[in-house]
Fold 2-(1,2-epoxy-1,2-dihydrophenyl)acetyl-CoA isomerase.
Amino acid sequence: MPDTTYDTIRVERDGNAATVTLARPDHLNSLTPAMNAELREAVTALTDDDGVRCVVVRGAGDAFCAGADLSRFDGGSDDEPVIRQLASTLHETILRLHRAETPIVVGVDGSAAGAGFGLALAGDIVVASDAARFEFAYPRLGLTGDGGSTFFLPRLVGLRHAKEIVLLDEPIGPERAVDLGIATEAADGGDFDELLDAVASRLADGPTEAFGRVKRLVTEGFDRRLEDQLAAETDAIAQATRTEDYASGHAAFYGDDDPEFVGR
């Protein structure tokens, strides 16, 4: 990925992992049209880059993302085109994250509300700090939901819990988020960065093509009959034998060293 300078986000590479940081901390990393477009551009570039084997999304300062920047809204029907454009751009990013064959790790430190809630749910692995707070938030404005939240939430927590969350709209702390399946793991405040880095490094050093195929199998399995899913599993596992990582894993299985995966 070529070096690109952004105004509202930061993109940093560390070995095989890349981190996208939402960088409007004075505004709780709320999304503006410009930030939304930059996020889409960065995520697209990173998930297209074969040299990036894990993407981390996190926020700067005391929040992950507090949703859309409400200062852009007037509170009436004139907001419709603004909200439609914001949602459409965000949804391109969500689709990219959801369909990426690269593992996606989201680090939530502080509030993930509204669009930030949906963005957090799109992660394959979600690490929450002890300050994390997950909030659907839309009913407070008399709005529905976007960012894929109504798609991911019932799949993660079940229909009954999903309705509870979207209707009662109570903030969810890190421990309950893990219990519900919204977050993967909760870290103590001082251990958040360390845990996030450890998870990203582990995934970035893994069998990237196998990760991509198994992610796709798990995701698409919701929409298939068992017979079709079994056929897809047969194709995926057979195709994986063509990779260098399979050869390395097989050799290590019968040897004394750990496999050295190269992501292809």
User: Anything to note?
Assistant: The CA atoms of residues 98 and 225 lie 21 Å apart. The radius of gyration is 19 Å.
